[in-house]
Design brief:
- Keywords: Oxidoreductase.
- This is Dehydrogenase/reductase 2.
- It comes from Otolemur garnettii.
- By secondary structure, the chain is of the alpha/beta class.
- It has one domain: Rossmann fold, CATH 3.40.50.
- It is built from ten helices and seven strands.
- It has a seven-stranded parallel sheet, with helices on both faces.
- Helix 3 crosses helix 10, helix 5 packs parallel to helix 6 (about 140-170) and helix 6 runs parallel beside helix 7.
- Residues about 1-5 and about 10-30 have low confidence and may be disordered.
- The structure holds NADP nicotinamide-adenine-dinucleotide phosphate (NAP).
- NADP nicotinamide-adenine-dinucleotide phosphate binds near residues 73, 226 and 229.
Length: about 290
């Protein structure tokens, strides 16, 4: 086991030497202290990670020693996120991946393997809500988009990464739901349903993948201050709704979600799988 780990480490560092164009930061990759970090020499693929919660998770996993592959729909956002994290000395590369597109998912997997040689963690953060209104007035096209991106894409991406996570021997998958899964937000019907489906997907996949030593858990954020939630946060009625229904006394920060994901990927969580874990402040109704 020790020899295999050493071989993997050496192979990765050889790759870095042979392909210097690779966007990983060499500073942290070659640092001795990095090997003592809890996610040292692990590789994490994170969708929807150029902004908000995903970006905070990317930064945190990299700070904890992982090589991180960030991704999102827009090249410009990927470039900015990679540049910012590399400036902090973190081992990060990036590629475009609109998770609803099969070819993009394939490219994400291919790029991660090409640059890192293996994948240990998959964190599926990308989620959309293109429609505000009545559930029964939601068009078929909108249903397909929401369920396709929020629910189907994580499962399909995971199926492509499965052999690699299995090879890792310590594979960990983290899905991202929402408190809207438990307490629906009005006018976000299809989104609420998609987030509830993720709770079930977590339970089902954790059972199926336990024999392969792959753990599957789910981060369930409350209202977190990101671009995605600005419309809600600025709506004073919604502020009252958050306090009344969720019991939350304040809006959370993306960084307050990231530590849990790092823990769930780490050996400290080796006996934790199939859990939907709420990060929403004080939440007596959840
Ligand atoms: N903020 C909250 O209050 C809250 C609460 C509960 C759950 N969540 C969930 O947390 C996740 C992240 O939300 P956030 O608040 O961090 O949003 P955000 O700040 O708007 O960031 C979204 C990130 O995802 C990327 N993205 C969007 N659609 C994508 C797609 N189809 N494929 C790949 N990447 C995509 C965006 O970059 P590009 O524009 O470049 O694609 C961006 O990097 C979502 O699943 C959301 O449902 C958020």
């Amino acid at each position: 086991q020790t020899e295999t780990t050493m071989l993997r480490f050496l192979t990765r560092n050889w790759r870095n030497l042979l392909f210097p164009v690779v966007s990983f930061s060499m500073r942290s990759a070659s640092s001795g202290t990095k090997d003592r970090l809890k996610l040292a020499n692990k590789v994490a693929v994170i969708t929807g990670s150029t902004n908000g919660i995903g970006f905070a998770i990317a930064r945190r996993l990299a700070q904890d020693g992982a090589h991180v592959v960030v991704s999102s729909r827009k090249q410009q956002n990927v470039d900015q996120a990679v540049a910012m994290l590399q400036r902090e000395g973190l081992s990060v590369m990036g590629t475009v991946c609109q998770v609803g597109k099969e070819e993009d998912r394939e490219q994400l997997v291919a790029k991660a393997l090409e640059h890192c040689g293996s994948v240990d963690f998959l964190v599926c953060v990308a989620g959309v809500n293109p429609f505000v209104g009545s559930t029964l007035e939601t068009s078929e096209q909108v249903w397909d988009k929401i369920l396709g991106v929020n629910v189907k894409a994580p499962a399909l991406l995971l199926s492509q990464l499965l052999p690699h996570l299995e090879k890792s021997g310590q594979g960990s998958v983290v899905l991202v739901s929402s408190v809207a899964a438990y307490i629906p937000v009005s006018n976000l019907g299809a989104y609420n349903v998609s987030k509830t489906a993720l709770l079930g997907l977590t339970k089902t996949l954790s059972m199926e993948l336990a024999p392969k030593n792959i753990r599957v858990n789910c981060l369930v954020p409350g209202v977190i201050n990101t671009k995605f939630s600005q419309v809600l946060i600025k709506d004073t009625d919604f502020g009252d709704h958050v306090k009344r229904l969720y019991g939350a006394q304040r809006v959370g920060r993306p960084e307050e979600c990231a530590g849990l994901v790092s823990f769930l990927c780490s050996p400290d969580a080796s006996y934790i799988t199939g859990e939907n874990i709420v990060v929403a402040g004080f939440s007596p109704h959840l």
